[in-house]
Write a structure and sequence with these properties.
By secondary structure, the chain is an alpha+beta fold. Helix content is about 55%, strand content about 20%. The chain is elongated.
């Protein structure tokens, strides 16, 4: 038994004497490339935190660089140890496992690839208001698996990225601008031109309403009713320049316009309800 242990110890020492230098070099190479990959990844993640709109792309590149550095380091380690055939076998096995995992987690893989496409094509940015499959809200975060939306009523919606790629996506604020409108009903005896000028002048006093040449507020006749005229008021807001939500700004504008019309004595008739009594006078007196 002692001879067997001595033989094993001798074989081990002999292996280290011949392969020890190769083992040391291989470990150093593996550690070095792993350190380089980790260092580059941390640098890129810090940069991603500073630029949220490019965070997904930068983070993805950082993870790819980390993986490449580890694979290169592992390959060099196996080569130094004289296990080149093992390297080929590991790569072949990794490819087979990737296929199996891809089939088993098809949806996750699809969302992952869709996240990469969205990160590079960038049909929307953080803060944009988008709509897909009747889900509408402001984009809070985009990662490689899903996109986080916050709806106007405070709900958090997480949409798989594959839906954003395969379905119709509406971006209401790609340039930050969004148009709003509301209706006003006035008496048909009022001067429509005068009322229109008063409404536009009132909205010029609201700071958040855009006043650029092609974005100025305007008023159109929407329809005619019995003794009334419906006017439709249009205005543009830049959602990237306002801190309050756009419905609140719109409500403020409507309030100012309403107060102005009252102060100017513009008639805004209410709904007229006609009540008919079909009972005969004699029957009503009984």
């Amino acid at each position: 038994m002692i001879e067997s242990l001595a033989e094993k110890l001798h074989n081990t020492l002999d292996w280290f004497s011949t392969k020890g230098a190769d083992l040391l070099v291989g470990v150093i190479l593996l550690a070095l490339f792993s350190f380089i990959g980790s260092f580059l990844r941390k640098k890129l993640l810090k940069q991603a935190a500073k630029t949220p709109e490019k965070g997904v792309v930068i983070g993805f590149i950082g993870n790819i660089m980390m993986a490449v550095m580890v694979v290169v380091g592992l390959s060099l380690f196996l080569r130094e140890m004289g296990w080149s055939r093992l390297t080929a076998g590991l790569l072949a096995g990794a490819g087979f496992i990737s296929i199996v995992i891809g089939i088993a987690f098809k949806d996750i893989g699809e969302n992952f690839l869709a996240g990469i496409l969205l990160a590079f094509s960038r049909p929307f940015q953080i803060g944009d208001r988008i709509e897909v499959d009747s889900n509408s809200g402001r984009v809070l975060q985009l990662n490689l698996r899903n996109t986080h939306l916050r709806t106007s009523d405070g709900r958090d919606v997480f949409i798989p990225n594959s839906l954003l790629v395969n379905r119709v996506l509406t971006n209401y604020t790609r340039d930050g601008l969004m148009r709003h409108d509301f209706l006003i009903e006035i008496d048909d005896s009022e001067d429509i031109g005068k009322v229109t000028q008063l409404i536009i002048k009132t909205m010029e006093g609201v700071q958040q309403v855009q006043q650029a040449q092609r974005l100025k507020p305007f008023v159109l006749i929407d329809s005619f009713g019995s003794n009334t005229v419906k006017l439709k008021v249009f205005l543009w807001l830049n959602l990237r320049e306002i801190e309050t939500s756009s419905p609140i700004i719109k409500s403020r504008v409507m309030k100012r316009v309403h107060e102005m019309l009252l102060n100017e004595g513009i008639a805004m008739p209410g709904s007229i309800i006609e009540i008919k009594n079909y009972e005969k006078p004699d029957a009503a007196n009984k």
